[in-house]
């Protein structure tokens, strides 16, 4: 620690702090334009000049100067103010000062400082810039005339996003922030650059001219897309969510968001939202009142109560913990059925079955913050970046700032593999288990295994048959590479495994989670900082759904089995809360047949989804912005969701819907959702002793007590089918689940279903980028757009699953790999 | 006792020989002073309203009676897609004129704003535009 004096205040700060940090910790504000706490110090704008007693004679930039013992700093005097005014005058010389039409006004650092320092005339004269404004890309308007060259956009895109879309081009007065060949921007559209731009040079086009910054009411809540659980601030006006507001102090991610979080909020106030209940009459869905709809649902559920086995319920993991708990109470408690599930069953099995078997808990023994604290990261599938982009930023930071050794085991290459020093082990599709078993085998054979690991002898016996050569042949990875990876993993002081799961990844099941856990347990790399296994649930509340037991517990049917049982006639009444199985569950034709076969189908959703269109009763539910409650994110962080706007139309929250039904069917009636949280805290061990109020803005990390056990898993490679390509599904960067289709950003950037092919296959099949192609399997066929790239190995096709039209589940059937033919 | 009464009568008498101040409105019209704050007018330049929908006037308006909605035109520029003043709530303070950074709004000499229905007091952009 270093002691210094800032404006006569004694400050003690760590020795790597700068003068700026020291002043900040003493509550003294030094003006800055180019500094951001997330980025490396830059020292470009010269606004933060201060006087240091020991370095008299010149002014010192506070943001780049490290503190030294006994420093005496003065942050403001006449000379400093004069210098800062000069900086502002020089900036304003070229700046267009078109505040009346600039969206940044009110939240513009340049405007605020100009006002604060009373810069109302300029001693210089010059012409303004005349740069062309980039209106080509649909997301970010780039007006370089307003740019003050602080470099924050280029730095954040490089340092944190690791995309590198910008750099300063040209020199001197001509200098400006440019893109590749000074062309239009085409990037990940995460909006990080927009959020840090101190002026209005970069603005969000979906929000352009929608409202003034000061007219927005700001509500802190949690993103409702993926499981990362990013905190965000919704900017609302007139009961509409108009934008997301950047707050650098929010969450572990310091306000960073991905494309979905930043630009896909429009689903909340979409015109397509359901505003009244619908009842099927004479084959058509017609508007009805809540009373009529709920009376009908109550009547049918009462009938079903007599034969609980004929009743099933599917939920989405987008609901709050409170709603999920009530969902379980209604169906398992009041109605007595065990046929309840979410995410088709397989998309949470890694947690509910895999981790349960390996660690005795349904939650990961690691948290997101472990990523940067680790020495070696083993990422199963490069898709971890696409499914959870902000966790991807953590990986970027870990690799680039903390020197984390990044290893990726994947069936395709991807962005993560481009990080410095990252090594991607590309295996044949569907052979993850074989590869992980082989890694375990190497660790055991090399004597690197912890002899006290529980279940070691069973695992040894089970792996006795595994041979490195055979595994190498089946996985397409050389024996040396497997051996090296295993040894490096075992040798790392701290190693963490990341496993994304979700509806797009049927292969990421319980067995894969167990195989991953085996590595961690074998080498004793769990239960300590920077180690363990992080299973990354797909949806914002996947972890909550696992914690609260939204899956069959005894003899009940899981998601996929419910679909089968609908066809066989066993399930006659099906309640679907927010899930869209028609698009997201494997085998679309089968799911559609099942939903048509079922006698009575109730769907509660925000939109008339492909699933809701088949329903007998559709209940309009509300989005995360219209309700309060809690979500549990990846790494067990429990966070508060706060209502920002009133529900649209007559829509009601799932809490209200389920509460009314539960009371009508003889269950308990709750006054509000927080009463349910109290019950969760009383019944679910991990949530014991918590209250919503105690969560605050930060949220709470739920405790976990892993009791490890090695679980042998049988592995079989997906046998290649001659003349066919291996189709693997997954997530696209701009989308999450099937809801992002109702957000503006994702649909502007990535509107259509596509399938990605390797350049080699495309050449053989004479397919070019953008061609309409047909993907055919034994299950069915679908037409999508071709995307040709260098990411995929020959023989592999990748397709994201989010789209309703051209949905890839028309050809898949719940296997990790689907063998397909592709043609024009 | 009688003196104050006489003083009063004296004033009354003196006024009998002065010009009356009452105007025979509407036959007689008042002369309007230069700083008068009457009905708002949206200034026009190059055949379009000068207003750039900066939202400063609705922000400053103490009566909160101005509604602006910005739009993006074909050249990606900002314009007021909607500009409305609820004249029933306006207190004619003139802050909106003062706040406008582009001299897009002024207050005219029109003071006869009586009307029959509430809706008629909502002055839309079309009604406010300067008539040349
Ligand atoms: S949106 Fe994201 S990826 Fe694109 S330039 Fe900005 S920071 Fe980089
Ligand atoms: S565009 Fe914005 S963030 Fe980028 S250099 Fe210019 S002012 Fe800074
Ligand atoms: S989608 Fe996931 S990563 Fe993106 S902002 Fe939301 S929670 Fe964060
Ligand atoms: S005159 Fe005053 S009250 Fe009337 S619209 Fe303008 S600011 Fe509002
Ligand atoms: S202040 Fe002037 S430019 Fe701004 S909205 Fe009002 S009238 Fe239009």
UniProtKB/TrEMBL annotation, chain A:
<keyword id="KW-0520">NAD</keyword>
<keyword id="KW-0004">4Fe-4S</keyword>
<keyword id="KW-0411">Iron-sulfur</keyword>
<keyword id="KW-0001">2Fe-2S</keyword>
<dbReference type="InterPro" id="IPR054351">
    <property type="entry name" value="NADH_UbQ_OxRdtase_ferredoxin"/>
</dbReference>
<feature type="domain" description="4Fe-4S ferredoxin-type">
    <location>
        <begin position="138"/>
        <end position="166"/>
    </location>
</feature>
<dbReference type="GO" id="GO:0051539">
    <property type="term" value="F:4 iron, 4 sulfur cluster binding"/>
</dbReference>
<feature type="domain" description="4Fe-4S Mo/W bis-MGD-type">
    <location>
        <begin position="216"/>
        <end position="272"/>
    </location>
</feature>
<dbReference type="Pfam" id="PF13510">
    <property type="entry name" value="Fer2_4"/>
</dbReference>
<feature type="domain" description="4Fe-4S ferredoxin-type">
    <location>
        <begin position="177"/>
        <end position="207"/>
    </location>
</feature>
<dbReference type="Pfam" id="PF22117">
    <property type="entry name" value="Fer4_Nqo3"/>
</dbReference>
<dbReference type="Pfam" id="PF00384">
    <property type="entry name" value="Molybdopterin"/>
</dbReference>
<dbReference type="Pfam" id="PF10588">
    <property type="entry name" value="NADH-G_4Fe-4S_3"/>
</dbReference>
<dbReference type="InterPro" id="IPR017900">
    <property type="entry name" value="4Fe4S_Fe_S_CS"/>
</dbReference>
<dbReference type="InterPro" id="IPR019574">
    <property type="entry name" value="NADH_UbQ_OxRdtase_Gsu_4Fe4S-bd"/>
</dbReference>
<dbReference type="InterPro" id="IPR001041">
    <property type="entry name" value="2Fe-2S_ferredoxin-type"/>
</dbReference>
<dbReference type="InterPro" id="IPR036010">
    <property type="entry name" value="2Fe-2S_ferredoxin-like_sf"/>
</dbReference>
<dbReference type="InterPro" id="IPR017896">
    <property type="entry name" value="4Fe4S_Fe-S-bd"/>
</dbReference>
<dbReference type="GO" id="GO:0051537">
    <property type="term" value="F:2 iron, 2 sulfur cluster binding"/>
</dbReference>
<keyword id="KW-0472">Membrane</keyword>
<dbReference type="InterPro" id="IPR006656">
    <property type="entry name" value="Mopterin_OxRdtase"/>
</dbReference>
<dbReference type="GO" id="GO:0022904">
    <property type="term" value="P:respiratory electron transport chain"/>
</dbReference>
From TrEMBL, chain B:
<dbReference type="InterPro" id="IPR010226">
    <property type="entry name" value="NADH_quinone_OxRdtase_chainI"/>
</dbReference>
<dbReference type="GO" id="GO:0050136">
    <property type="term" value="F:NADH dehydrogenase (quinone) (non-electrogenic) activity"/>
</dbReference>
<feature type="binding site">
    <location>
        <position position="61"/>
    </location>
    <ligand>
        <name>[4Fe-4S] cluster 2</name>
    </ligand>
</feature>
<keyword id="KW-0408">Iron</keyword>
<keyword id="KW-0411">Iron-sulfur</keyword>
<feature type="domain" description="4Fe-4S ferredoxin-type">
    <location>
        <begin position="81"/>
        <end position="110"/>
    </location>
</feature>
<comment type="similarity">
    <text>Belongs to the complex I 23 kDa subunit family.</text>
</comment>
<keyword id="KW-0677">Repeat</keyword>
<feature type="binding site">
    <location>
        <position position="57"/>
    </location>
    <ligand>
        <name>[4Fe-4S] cluster 1</name>
    </ligand>
</feature>
<feature type="binding site">
    <location>
        <position position="96"/>
    </location>
    <ligand>
        <name>[4Fe-4S] cluster 2</name>
    </ligand>
</feature>
<keyword id="KW-0874">Quinone</keyword>
<keyword id="KW-0479">Metal-binding</keyword>
<dbReference type="GO" id="GO:0005506">
    <property type="term" value="F:iron ion binding"/>
</dbReference>
<comment type="subunit">
    <text>NDH-1 is composed of 14 different subunits. Subunits NuoA, H, J, K, L, M, N constitute the membrane sector of the complex.</text>
</comment>
<dbReference type="InterPro" id="IPR017900">
    <property type="entry name" value="4Fe4S_Fe_S_CS"/>
</dbReference>
<keyword id="KW-1278">Translocase</keyword>
<keyword id="KW-0004">4Fe-4S</keyword>
<protein>
    <recommendedName>
        <fullName>NADH-quinone oxidoreductase subunit I</fullName>
        <ecNumber>7.1.1.-</ecNumber>
    </recommendedName>
</protein>
<feature type="binding site">
    <location>
        <position position="93"/>
    </location>
    <ligand>
        <name>[4Fe-4S] cluster 2</name>
    </ligand>
</feature>
<feature type="binding site">
    <location>
        <position position="90"/>
    </location>
    <ligand>
        <name>[4Fe-4S] cluster 2</name>
    </ligand>
</feature>
<feature type="binding site">
    <location>
        <position position="51"/>
    </location>
    <ligand>
        <name>[4Fe-4S] cluster 1</name>
    </ligand>
</feature>
<keyword id="KW-0472">Membrane</keyword>
